[in-house]
Design goal:
By secondary structure, chain A is of the alpha+beta class. Chain A has 12 helices and 22 strands. Classes of the chains: A alpha+beta, B alpha+beta.
């Protein structure tokens, strides 16, 4: 199929689909010469300048008595395209920012200081101040901060892309958004009422006093559609399709590339039939549940993955986002000598593959991320770590040898102190053929949860209320959509009760932005998971009416 | 010219200008020791931007923010997070017309601005002749003056340089002595902001704020307690008290037992009420209410009204206000230019009086459509008893409760439905059974599933309102008011409400 020509979607699909037309004007053809100048923000701060600023900060920190210091400096550009509620172009724009954050270790304590002026003087001030603060805090410390060692790395990396979105004309990108909104609005009542794209390119340098210099450039789209739809189209276009776009690094080819447009069509074709089901309610009670792949992945991004962040597990977040359902870790490891914490069907890993926005070549400690098995056959065997949490975690797990960081240190921006975050979680699928229909087979009355539900959790991620798209199963078949229903769950018992898990064909993806820290920072989690079935979930009625 | 309607075909621009008197009562002096730039310094930056590309910058906001943060975990200093940022956001439009573009940067120098204008020019020429844009409206409408506010305290500004080293031991020492595992947050912030339009109004404000909170937990994770304070004036805060109260709450919470979930009378501390009311701010948005019918104050299928303005919505003993001049809950008295699109004056609002909805918040442009003054949603709000209503202390509420639950704090509160304000969350850091007028025993945490619109209509007693810290909030509103720092103050009372839905037990501690 032609890669980048604008074309009619869903031709041949009758009924509600009708066809989504992204306008009649052709998109630019792949390879066509571009004579439109880019927005030219690249020239402001090149990587060499960033490295010079980083070095100035480190020199100042060590001159002021820091025995170790690291610094992250970044130059970030954003290109904002949006529509308003009535499919007209909104107020687009640009953003350019510099962030620089220094972390100094002196006397066994950390001090962090940031500045957003890209000058040597400002970064020297930040480095000096970080060391001063560290020395001050060391006098109050009850113990020495220990950092896991890390090899020195000097390397660079850029997220691969084909088409630089900063060179694609504003008009074209706006037309794309507007056409999408119009097409959806024509076909689906109450459809998406606005959409936008925020292209973000960030070059981040991490430099340490132990010789690491990593330079990474990330390019990604942030897609933000909105709206509520009856039936399954919401799932297709938000976050299904937009999850496709917003969860990975890449350039403009992500939106106009043939593969993605085919995927959009596949998602629509797969989901539109679901909109033909009637909507019913569900009596409060306990029912068997099947999570489709995306719903399962959602649970990983919002509950099961974050529960294994080393700083949460060790109590660093106790006054903020909270701890974990495996805290205290020592007690969990003792308990699971009797029985696995969760179902033996569960093997959960964390990693930071570079195609996902949760990924990176090196973390914000300058460490190359390593895939980490968190749960193996139902047993907790690992946690996500950074250089600060790795020693304590290794000791608790009884690991031999020198503790090494897993490479999960992340600051939302370069000026924020890194925390443990940003990971891609994977739940291993069944190696035996098991489709979603197989999981539903034999369920006389149950619920299928599809898409990427929202999860309201708690301070230990130990329980939650799940809301989103649910379908009723009767005798192994889907019979209706369910409205006004939520599922209350307890995290460990839910996963412990997992009775069956799907194969690779049931895999789905999800993305979630969570907050932790004080003041809060964002953490981006992505996940891939197969469908799975649990024999019982507690369903409650969320349909309330105000007088 | 009539105000531009959102519903009419788009037109490129209007030509009227808005004129608003500048703020009165703002100090003109420029102390050398301030952690953030003075009005004069911010004005110099603004004038530079306005003049670098004369006439093309339509409006802007320049702000300087600074913070000093210390985090404690496991009875040790975890990290600091100190620094400052100057950020400017401006609107740009070519003289020959067309829609507006926006630019934001924290690299505030003329070299960056020259690059910015070149880039904007590229975009502008791509834009013009393309799709019609929406609006940038300037309308000659009489406006209220900018309210004089007092949000700055020199004691807090001074504390940014030295208070951490004296305050942190006051948090750490009792935690270590208690044998509990303590985590804490001590934060100071200062902010100055200057905004306005080219050839039009200008506005300036500066503020300081401080927040201190402590979580104390047993090492086995079986119980925890929390306490916090927030105030713009540092001298009104007491870290020793914060630590002591958190430790006391943790000790009282030891050995919790389970109580059957269900509907119970609830005595909610101000910490708990604040977590609910913070989620209510967006409910007062007029556009969401009238256009989307997406809030509790919307009315469907009634030809006579589209909102509940004039109807009783909560208990008549309560009122809800948002006032930039509130002595505890004051805030910047003009719009946030990057998110509101204007730096127009914000009004003193009584949204609910004697339980009756008085008005909604009309944001930028929609206010012009409806002939209303501009207002932001009440991200800072005061919920309080009407004058003359007898107030009860928490102890008095407990004393008159035959059977109920005392909640120290809620956590992870999320709104599930905008139309009903149905929320869910969990209790945290102190939850107790009340029996026969006394605290009977600590209980395991609950998940709740209820709406403040129900709870505030089942009011049994109300106490004295005070500013409380929000602590951690996991979700965010579109404009970041939940998570941006400094926080907008929330002033709330303790409440005793009937039939609060504790829908399930929570394993979380």
């Amino acid at each position: 199929m032609s890669a980048l020509t604008r074309r009619r979607f869903l031709t041949g699909i009758s009924g509600l689909a009708g066809g989504l037309v992204l306008g009649s004007r052709p998109m630019f053809a792949k390879g066509a010469p571009r004579d439109v100048p880019g927005v030219g923000l690249d020239a402001v701060l090149a990587a060499d300048a960033l490295r010079e600023l980083a070095a100035a900060a480190l020199d100042a920190a060590t001159a002021n008595g820091a025995r170790y210091a690291d610094v992250r400096v970044a130059y970030r550009q954003q290109y904002v395209i949006n529509t308003d509620d009535y499919d007209r172009a909104g107020v687009p724009g640009l953003e350019a920012s510099f962030e620089g954050g220094v972390r100094a270790l002196a006397g066994g304590a950390f001090g962090c200081h940031f500045d957003n002026m890209p000058t040597v003087a400002a970064m020297q001030t930040a480095g000096h101040a970080a060391a001063t603060m560290a020395k001050g805090m060391a006098a109050l410390e009850g113990g020495a901060t220990e950092l896991a060692p890390a090899p020195s790395i000097r390397d660079s990396w850029v997220t691969p892309y084909e088409i630089d979105p900063f060179t694609v004309p504003l008009t074209e990108q706006t037309e794309l958004c507007v056409a999408f909104v119009r097409a959806l609005g024509e076909r689906v009542p109450g459809a998406s009422t606005g959409t936008g794209i925020i292209w973000s390119r960030e070059t981040r340098v991490c430099m340490t006093t132990t010789g690491t210099v990593t330079t990474q450039t990330f390019l990604r789209p942030g897609i933000s559609p909105s709206g509520n739809l009856q039936g399954g189209l919401t799932e297709v276009f938000s976050p299904g399709v937009f999850g496709l776009w917003g969860s990975r690094y890449g350039g403009y080819e992500m939106i106009v590339g043939a593969g993605h447009q085919d995927r959009i069509q596949e998602l629509v074709e797969a989901t539109l039939p679901l909109t033909m089901y009637p909507t019913r309610t569900l009596d409060v009670g306990r029912y068997p549940i099947v999570f489709d792949g995306s719903a399962a992945a959602s649970l990983l991004t919002q509950i099961y993955g974050p529960a294994f962040q080393g700083d949460r597990v060790l109590g660093f977040e106790a006054n903020a986002s909270g701890t974990s359902f495996i805290s205290p870790l020592e007690a969990t490891l003792v308990r699971q000598r009797e029985a696995p914490l969760v179902s033996p069907l569960c093997t959960l890993t964390a990693s930071r593959p570079t195609e996902w926005i949760s990924g990176a070549r090196w973390d914000d400690d300058g460490v190359e991320p390593q895939p980490t098995t968190l749960v193996r056959d139902g047993l907790v065997v690992g946690c996500m770590s950074d250089r600060q949490t790795a020693p304590a975690l290794a000791k608790t797990f009884g690991a031999s040898g020198v503790a090494v960081s897993g490479g999960y240190a992340c600051g939302e921006t370069a000026d924020r102190p890194p925390m443990v975050g940003n990971a891609h979680f994977t739940l291993s699928p069944n190696t035996k053929t098991t489709s979603r229909d197989d999981l539903m087979h034999g369920i006389s009355h149950g619920v299928l949860i599809i898409g990427t539900p929202g999860v309201a959790s708690d301070q230990q991620l130990a329980s939650g209320l799940l809301t989103g798209q649910m379908m009723e199963i009767r005798n192994g078949k889907l019979v209706s959509y369910l409205g006004g229903v939520g599922m209350q769950f307890r995290s460990v018992p839910l996963l412990k009760s997992m009775k069956a898990i799907g194969d690779a064909s049931t895999m789905g993806n999800a993305m979630a932005r969570l907050r932790k820290g004080q003041p809060t920072q964002s953490v981006w989690n992505t996940a891939s998971a197969p469908a799975f079935m649990c024999p019982a979930g507690d369903f409650v009625n969320l349909d309330v009416t105000l007088s | 010219m009539a105000p531009h309607s959102l519903f009419s075909p788009p037109i490129a621009r209007h030509t009227h200008r808005i004129t608003i008197p500048r703020a009165v009562g703002v100090p003109e002096t420029d102390p050398e020791t301030d952690p953030v730039l003075s009005e004069a310094a911010l004005k110099r930056i603004a004038d530079m931007v306005f003049t670098v590309n004369e006439g093309n910058v339509t409006g802007l906001q320049v702000e300087h923010s600074a913070r000093v943060v210390t985090r404690v975990a496991n009875n040790r200093v975890l990290t600091t997070d100190n620094g400052h940022q100057i950020k400017i956001t401006f609107g740009y439009r070519e003289a020959y017309g067309g829609g507006e573009l926006r630019f934001a940067t924290n690299m505030v120098d003329d070299a960056m601005l020259r690059v910015a204008f070149r880039a904007l020019d590229v975009l502008y020429r791509q834009r013009s002749g393309g799709l019609p844009s929406t609006f940038v409206i300037t309308v000659d409408t009489p406006q209220q003056p900018i309210l004089p506010v007092q949000l700055w305290h020199d004691t807090t500004a001074a504390a940014m340089t030295n208070a951490a080293t004296t305050a942190i031991p006051k948090l750490l020492t009792p935690l270590i002595q208690s044998g509990l595992k303590g985590s804490a947050f001590l934060g100071f912030s200062a902010r100055s902001v200057y905004a306005g339009e080219n050839h039009g109004h200008r506005a300036y404000c500066r503020e300081t704020d401080a927040e201190c909170s402590v979580s104390a937990r047993f090492a086995d994770g079986s119980a925890s307690g929390w306490f916090g304070q927030a105030n713009r004036e540092w001298t009104k805060m007491d870290p020793s008290l914060v630590a002591a109260q958190a430790i006391d709450m943790a000790n009282r919470s030891k050995g919790p037992s389970a109580v059957e979930p269900g509907r119970h009378t609830a005595v909610l501390s101000p910490f708990a009420v604040a977590q609910l009311m913070a989620q209510m701010s967006a409910q007062f948005d007029a556009y969401t209410t009238i256009v989307y019918k997406g809030t509790v104050f919307a009315v469907d299928n009634d030809p006579n009204r589209d909102t509940k303005i004039g109807l009783r919505v909560i208990d008549p003993r309560l009122r809800l206000k948002s006032d930039p001049m509130d002595p505890e809950g004051g805030y910047t008295p003009f719009g946030d230019w990057p998110s509101d699109g204007w730096a127009l004056p914000v009004q003193r609002m009584t949204y609910i009086d004697q339980g009756v909805l008085q008005d909604l918040a009309f944001g930028a442009h929609f206010n012009l459509e409806n002939g209303k003054p501009f207002n932001q949603n009440p991200w800072s709000l005061r919920l309080e008893a009407m004058p003359g209503v007898p107030l009860s202390t928490v102890d008095e509420m407990i004393a008159r409760c035959k059977l109920g639950i005392y909640v120290n704090r809620f956590s992870h509160v999320q709104t599930l439905s905008g139309k009903t304000a149905l929320m869910t969350g969990v209790t945290r850091d102190g939850c107790f059974l009340i029996k026969d007028g006394k605290i009977n025993r600590p209980v395991k945490n609950f998940r709740f599933l209820d709406s403040p619109m129900f709870a505030l209509n089942r009011l049994l007693a109300v106490g004295k309102s005070e500013r409380v810290p929000l602590g951690f909030i996991p979700s965010d509103d579109e404009q970041g008011y939940f998570t941006r720092w400094p926080r907008r103050p929330i002033i709330v009372p303790p409440l005793m409400v009937d039939d609060f839905n504790f829908s399930a037990l929570s394993d979380a501690v």
